[in-house]
C-alpha cells in the first residue's frame, strides 16, 4: 500500500509535551518556566555587567558576553513553542516555522560549542604569549570573531535545513519534543534522508567533537603549566578556575551530544529519556 504523504506547502507537525502526563502539563510548566526565567535574566544580567563595568572590558569577558548572547538565542528559539504546548495545547506547527526553529536551535548549539572552545583556548594563549596577548586579541577583535563564528554556525546548518523543506512527510507527524529538532523531523520524512543523516552526524562529530578534543587538549596544557607554578595558592586558584570551566562545559556537552546519540541510535530508549535530555539541553547553559 502506498504511503500517504503531505505536500510540502501543507505539511504540519504535532509537538508533544510529556506523553501520558498531559493532565500535569500546567504543573510541569512551572519548573520549566523558572528555568527559562533564570536563563533569560541571568544572561541578560551578564550582558549588562560586561557593557557597563569598565573592569570587565577584557577579551575573556567579551567571550562570556558572546556566550550569554548564544544562550539567549537558544532560549528564544524554543520559547514560542514550549509554553504554547504546555499552557495552551498549541501543538500544531507548520513546516516552515518548524524548519526555522530547528535551524536556529542547531545553529546556536554549534555557536555555543565553538565559543566554549574559544574560551578554553584563551587561557593557554594568555599563559604562553602573555607579553603579546593584549596587542593580538583586542576588545574590538573579539566581537568580530563572535560574528564570524555566528555566520559559520548558521552556514553549516543551512544545507540540511533547506533539504527539510523539500521532503515529503508521512502521517502522522508527531515529534518527540515541544519544539522541532532536525533528527526528529527526518524520522517522519518519506523521502531519501541519507544526506541529512550523514551530514548531521558528520558535522556533529567534526564540529562539536573536535571542539571537545581541543578543549581537553587546552586544559591539559593549562594543568601542566599550573603544576609548574611554585606558589601553592596560585596553583589552587588556577585549578579551581579550570574545574569550574570544565563543569560548565559538561553542562552543555553532555545533554547536547547525548541527545544527538539517543535520537540516532537509541530508537528503543524510553521517550522520557529523549524529553528530559532535550529539556536539559535547552534550559541548562554554561
Please identify the oligomeric state: single chain
Radius of gyration: 21 Å
Structural class: mainly alpha
Helix count equals 11
Q: Largest sheet at a glance?
A: 3 strands, mixed
Basic shape:
globular
For the termini, the CA-CA separation is 49 Å
Share in β-strands: under 5%
Detail the poorly predicted runs.
1-7
Helix content: over 70%
H/E series, N to C?
EEHHHEHHHHEEHHHH
Round the mean pLDDT to the nearest integer and report it. 81
Could you give the order of strands across the largest sheet? 3-2-5
Number of distinct beta strands: 5
Kindly describe this structure.
With 286 residues, the chain is mainly alpha-helical. The strands form 2 sheets. The protein has a 3-stranded mixed beta sheet with strand order 3-2-5. Strands 1-4 form a two-stranded antiparallel ribbon. It has helices at residues 25-52, 59-78, 82-88, 95-128, 130-136, 141-156, 158-166, 182-186, 194-227, 232-265, 271-283, and strands at 5-6, 12-15, 92-94, 169-170, 174-175. Helix 2 runs antiparallel to helix 4, helix 4 (95-128) runs antiparallel to helix 7 (158-166) and helix 10 packs across helix 11 (271-283).
Task: Provide a brief overview of the structure.
The protein is mainly α. The protein contains eleven helices and five strands.
Amino acid at each position: 500500500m502506498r504511503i500517504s504523504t503531505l505536500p510540502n506547502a501543507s505539511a504540519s507537525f504535532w509537538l508533544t509535551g510529556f506523553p501520558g502526563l498531559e493532565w500535569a502539563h500546567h504543573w510541569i510548566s512551572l519548573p520549566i518556566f523558572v528555568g527559562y526565567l533564570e536563563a533569560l535574566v541571568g544572561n541578560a544580567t551578564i550582558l549588562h555587567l560586561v557593557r557597563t563595568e569598565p573592569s570587565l572590558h577584557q577579551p575573556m569577558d567579551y567571550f562570556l558576553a558572546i556566550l550569554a548572547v548564544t544562550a539567549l538565542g537558544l532560549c528564544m528559539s524554543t520559547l514560542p513553542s514550549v509554553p504554547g504546548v504546555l499552557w495552551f495545547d498549541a501543538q500544531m506547527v507548520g513546516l516552515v516555522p518548524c524548519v526555522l526553529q530547528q535551524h536556529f536551535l542547531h545553529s546556536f548549539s554549534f555557536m555555543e560549542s565553538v565559543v566554549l572552545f574559544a574560551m578554553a583556548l584563551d587561557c593557554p594563549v594568555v599563559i604562553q604569549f602573555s607579553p603579546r596577548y593584549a596587542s593580538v586579541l583586542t576588545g574590538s577583535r573579539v566581537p568580530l570573531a563572535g560574528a564570524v563564528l555566528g555566520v559559520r554556525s548558521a552556514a553549516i546548518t543551512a544545507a540540511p535545513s533547506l533539504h527539510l523543506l523539500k521532503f515529503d512527510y508521512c502521517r502522522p507527524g508527531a515529534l518527540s519534543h515541544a519544539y522541532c529538532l532536525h533528527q526528529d523531523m527526518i524520522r517522519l520524512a518519506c523521502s531519501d534522508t541519507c544526506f541529512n543523516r550523514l551530514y548531521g552526524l558528520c558535522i556533529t562529530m567534526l564540529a562539536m567533537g573536535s571542539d571537545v578534543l581541543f578543549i581537553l587538549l587546552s586544559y591539559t596544557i593549562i594543568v601542566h603549566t599550573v603544576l609548574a607554578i611554585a606558589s601553592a595558592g596560585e596553583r589552587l586558584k588556577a585549578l579551581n578556575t579550570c574545574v569550574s570551566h570544565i563543569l560548565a562545559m559538561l553542562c552543555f556537552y553532555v545533554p547536547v551530544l547525548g541527545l544527538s546519540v539517543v535520537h540516532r541510535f537509541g530508537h528503543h530508549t524510553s521517550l522520557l529519556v529523549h524529553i528530559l535530555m532535550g529539556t536539559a539541553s535547552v534550559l541548562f547553559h554554561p
